[in-house]
Amino acid sequence: MKKFYAFAVAAALGFGSAAVAQQTETPLSYYLPANTSYNSSIPTPKDILGYNVGEWHVSHDQLVMYMRLMDEASDRITLTEYARTHENRPLYLLTITSSQNQQNINQIKEQHRKLTNPAESGSVDIKNMPAVVWMGYSVHGNEPSGSNASLLAVYHLAAAQGPEIDKLLNETVILLDPSINPDGLNRFASWVNTHRGKNLVTDANSAEFDEVWPRGRTNHYWFDLNRDWLPLQHPESKGRLAKFHEWKPNVLTDHHEMGTNATFFFQPGIPSRNNPLTPENNFKLTQKIGTYHAKALDKIGSFYYTEESYDDFYYGKGSTYPDVNGAVGILFEQASSRGHAQESINGVLTFPFTIRNQFTTTLSTLEAAQAMREELLTHQRDFYKQAFNESKKAGTKAYVFGSEKDKARAFHLAEIIKQHQIEVYRPKESFKINNITYTPENAYIIPTEQPQYKLIEAMFEKRTTFQDSLFYDISAWTFPLAFDLDHAALSSKNFKGNQLGQRVEQMALPTGEVVGGKSDYAYAFEWHGYYAPRALNQLMDKGITAKVATDKFTTAGSKQFDYGTILIPVSGQPIGSDELHQLLQQVATENALQVHAMNTGFNPEGIKLGSPMMLSLQQPKIMMLIGDGVNSYDAGEAWHLLDNRFDMRPTLVKTDDFNRLALNKYNVIVLSDGSYGNISKDKLRSWVQQGGTVIGMGDAAKWLSDNGIGNITFKQSDKDTVAQKPYADMPNTNGAQVIGGAIFETKLDLTHPLTYGYTDTQMPIFRSNTLFMERSKSPYANPVMYTANPLMAGYISKPNLQKLKSTAAVDVSSLGSGKVIVMPDNPNFRAFWYGTNKLFLNSIFFGQIISGGSARTEDAHN
């Protein structure tokens, strides 16, 4: 039997006998339901880990060890690895159900999936069908009570005996994800265990409760994985979503923590903030499930609240994504001990207490799912039937998007959409709408008449009116705007089913090529392609010299080249012409680029290849400041873009170390959103004056302005002269002035180096702050400006909209021989804002070539 192997491994590894002394021990009986017997052959967490649950914070390797051994010990459990993190840690999903169901698991899965297909769901008999419950723990690594509670959940489900557990396992399939964020969990566990004494210290000032930057909340690249269910930019999310759609669960739980002085929250959240695409029945089911949580928490004496604070608007969160997929997502928020025991306004909050609440609501969820099984299954079937019927009546019959100049960007959006189990097609033939031509080679079509209609609408809609003006997360995420792609909603007048060409089954990044064969003179590629910066950096890594065209030109073959075209001379390179041709073939293929062989520098139109308007480029040597004061999300997004996507090597330097380091090896310094009061402004200013490029985003732009690094001006906050208001209205009144995340239109100067590669004078930008940058007195300093009517999607208050109109989105100042480039917004937001990534990358590659005449000049004597 499996269990013998489990104990043999445990004994061989030396676990199961030694106990770690502690101040007080928390026995299993503190957590487990009374009057339940357990199979003594199933190992408890202490049998394997050597300590009681809650005595220490479980590390990810320990958690994995226990889950693997439980897979061997119990025929109720099947363990599946579904992904690896950036740090190569395995992510596991445990399928837990009766042994009989395990034997028929594929048949159960297939029957369950039929509920989501309106063409088949009517024939499915739900009376004897198990409900499917997904339980996800600790997507934020420093909210560890969830993952530690998963030890108890797995033990209970594997070892509990009696008719109640047998009935539960027969009538449910439980999918348990014990650690959604292994990298963050391990980072946090290491910190708090390192700072735990033999005698627990509850003083909130203890270092145990003050983990170092970037803290354990995020994954390896400092992303919040709980916001990645829609964007799907990380391996953890991609693997998880594939399993989600493989099963289509009825209920999904998402176990979190909040402030130490809080109590316990369970959904539903604030009713007025539900996404309008979510059916009303979802809210009613969530309320009904909540009665089971309340009863369970009452029984153990835990305080709680519901229908406050949190919402279900942004579908990119783990507890909200299920709502647009026919399931019920449930968020749990437990007051956090942030260590082993900490003083709070409610007394000393212990780690075991936080774990018990998470485990208790795990069981209450299962009780609810079992009792409401047919109701939940019916909801799922009805959701997809109703969605499909709505799609037939909808005015929009399809969405089309694409890019003539950048197939890679369009590909990546199609790739995301397809991972959400949405059908994607190529156009059958070229067609034109709104003066844009879409071809089978550069475009994709998403017909709306399919089961995932609600999710399609969620990804493409441009909502600007809302029932509530407050949002727990962002208010807009329109994907074709995020990717800055040509796109259109097609009605029955301009779309027929026969316009659908080949259905996209396999996704593969388009390949590039060298056009024109080998050259002994020069090669050129335009900057339009998304991966053009990666291609240039790959060449520079090989020592290849490159120039950039600051004007247009046309070759003898009538090929027109745009601003920002990269020129690679053949002569003067460290490698021969044959090797250079081979290198360019490889680079073109990997980066979806067309590289053109040039046989003469005498162009019939535009600048010649030897023109002084062909400027030499230096390879960027990037320092990126991180650490205290820096927004780890924004810094992580910049790091991820450069390292993971563009294969560049930024040097991450802590702000505390900046003042003692020599800066002469760097020509670009990146300041992500944050406060930089601990670095020497004089040292930074001097470095810029000597020729460096500093890039400031978000509050870093304001810091540069306040410290006289760059001639940048921000609008001042209005003085509040309004009449007295009710104190109770303060949160909502103030909250309505927050720009939590919306999309706005800007206009571009396509001749400026910072906009090289763009082809449209209009570009959507994501904004999540109230920094309004004044337009420069120089006519050349603001290559990106907000339009007079900028709102495209999302919420912004009327006063803030007025402040934003016609302000600057990018500002460039000369400081001595260097450049100061600032943008109040984050061009790399959550890694799925592909459309504005190029603004950031152009700042890195082309900041060095911006002339003083195209920016405001300071210290002109230099």
From TrEMBL:
Domain of life: Bacteria
Alphabetical list of CDD domains matching this protein: M14-like (cd06238)
Pfam assignment, any one: Peptidase_M14
N-terminal signal peptide: 1-21
Keywords: Hydrolase, Metalloprotease, Protease, Signal, Zinc
SUPFAM superfamilies, alphabetized: Class I glutamine amidotransferase-like, Zn-dependent exopeptidases
Residues at the active site: E333 (proton donor/acceptor)
Occurrences of domain Peptidase M14 (ranges): 56-355
Similarity-based family: Belongs to the peptidase M14 family.
Protein name: M14 family metallopeptidase
